[in-house]
Amino acid sequence: MEISSKDNTQFFSNNTILPVDRSSFKSESSTSKEKQSCCGGIKVFLAALSFVYFAKALSGSYLKSTITQIERRFDIPSSLVGVIDGSFEIGNLLIIILVSYFGAKLHRPRIIGAGCLIMSAGTFLIAMPQFFMGRYRYERFPSTINSTVSISPCLQDKSQTPLSALEKSQAKLNAGCEKEAGSSMWIYVLLGNLLRGIGETPIQPLGITYIDDYAIEENAALYIGCVQTVAIIGPIFGFLLGSLCAKLYVDIGFVDLDSVTITHKDVQWVGAWWLGYLIAGVISVLAGIPFWFLPEHLPKPESRKDSSTSSEQSKFITEENRDQHKSYQQIKIAEMAKDFLPSLKSLFGNPVYILYLCASIIQFNSLIGMVTYKPKYIEQQYGQTSSKTNFVIGLINIPAVAFGIFSGGLIMKKFRINVLGAAKLSLGSSFFGYLLLLSLFAMGCENSEVAGLTVSYHGTKQTTDYEQALFSECNSGCACSKNDWDPICGENGVTYISACLAGCQASNGSGKNTVFFNCTCVGTLESPSQSSSAVVGPCQKGNECPKMFLYFLVISVITSYTLSVGGTPGYMLLLRCIKPHLKSFALGIYTLAIRVLAGIPAPVYFGVAIDTTCLKWGSKRCGGRGACRLYNSSALRYVYLGLTLVLGTVSIFFSVAVLWVLRKRSSPQDETLSVNGERGTCRTKSRKDNFVNSDHLIQTTYWPEKETRL
Q1: Is residue 178 included in any domain, yes or no?
Q2: In this protein, which residues make up the domain named Major facilitator superfamily (MFS) profile (predicted)?
Q3: What average pLDDT does the structure give for the chain?
Q4: Which pLDDT value is given to residue 107?
């Protein structure tokens, strides 16, 4: 490459040997002090940003852990819960363009601090309905609530019930209806999650670029690696917090816990979901405080003052205007935006980028839907409690994901894998991950035996209309409602929707210790002439189910690890196949596409599909359909796993297309280049464009919402 005489003159003039005097020692001394202050400032910012990453990851994962609790508390279907979950992405999208574009021109630490306050406000808002919507009411037979009033479960004659008890019950019901008719409190949860998305927006783009701008070049990768490591710890604590709160009753501190007649194993149980949001909100407030005291700019390290690619800001300044770097904030929007359309055209004209973008969108649809409803799947398929489910996910699955991400980066570094190799590793990871997921079809539990829903009252498998099958000869003399859900377990191992539908004539005890006697339907299955007893609560799943759950955990952990191994190579593939000056723009488009086309719709249509497998819907006090009480286990397994696998398979086809294009465009000479050097397989116009600066290798383990993807 030729160098002009002007450049030669400037080069030699800058490198002229000068006599050594005291001023040089002063300069050296000031430089060391500047370096020390710079390192001190960036380390304080690093610690603060790590804490913020922990806070946002904790609150995001805690939301995932409370999906089933919110569904039961507000009596809403899974599809609506999916809309609530997707509102975070909507909030993020509302301002992501403004923050990414104008954020670098303003006081970045204070913008992050303001984002933390907004995020905490949204987290507090999610918990607010608990304090305004009254106490949680679950369906229970009156005698199990008040032992002083003797009422037969099978109300053959309504005169058996004292009038005062009926009037009191009706008055409470009417009062509840008036309150419910005037509000839909789940909207506050949606708005709170929307605010969380808005507040979280500036943290990643402004925080990472701040470190990139002011950290010593060789330390930048280490610093951001520390931030991402802390971000992995957040979801672990989020799910463990969810496990703890799920064991506590929803109205703890407001009611006498001795009067609660259900346990955390009951399908109607709702834990103290709101408590975790208050804790997460306080953590978010504390995380934002340091940013209000951090400076807008830190002194640049000497090693990066003359670097042409040391920061995001320098990308907008041409060689001719480098002397005017100090006037960066005065650049007009029109001048910065004039290359927008040509850049967009160049980006979408890159077949590798487009194919990888399509593969990522479809794969994230698969993963986001799977992770969002994984707690529900474990609870319904294997009969586990919400507390145990969250504990297992937080302590086993998330560490497997973290280890997989680390392993992917280690493999890339150890074997110096090139871009073509990265595409192969990413494809292999997805292929074997979804192949392992296929084996989960054989690791499900059979439907619980529920009289009138999954089995008939005579012990045969149910094939007729469910609602009509709830009534039989054994309970024909009882005045029962098909809308009730107060399950009891007969001594024959069959669950009955209510004591009334089981034909129980008497009861003894109160609360959780209630025992029902003379249940005419319980004795029908084995000895029709003999009536039997039943206890409060549904029966446990079959004997094989605990063993299947262990198999599921093992395969699930291996699958999480296998899929995560391909995350880093795939992200490196994305970075290496675009020109350096388009890198930030390409990542912005990538993030935007993932959020719009995967983060928002996936929880919704997964929820709609899961709702189709419901066997028994709950009923709201004022009429209308509530949350699902019982799912068809087999149908749920096929829908949940099937939808995940179909999407995953489609994404694999796009990944194969990426590999095919790379092979077609590569040459034997290019394939010898590693990802630590030049982009051999994604050629650009000049060698200068192929050069990869070390400050762009720092986010190799990040992709959108990585912290909560299992």
Answers
A1: no
A2: 45-666
A3: 77
A4: 84
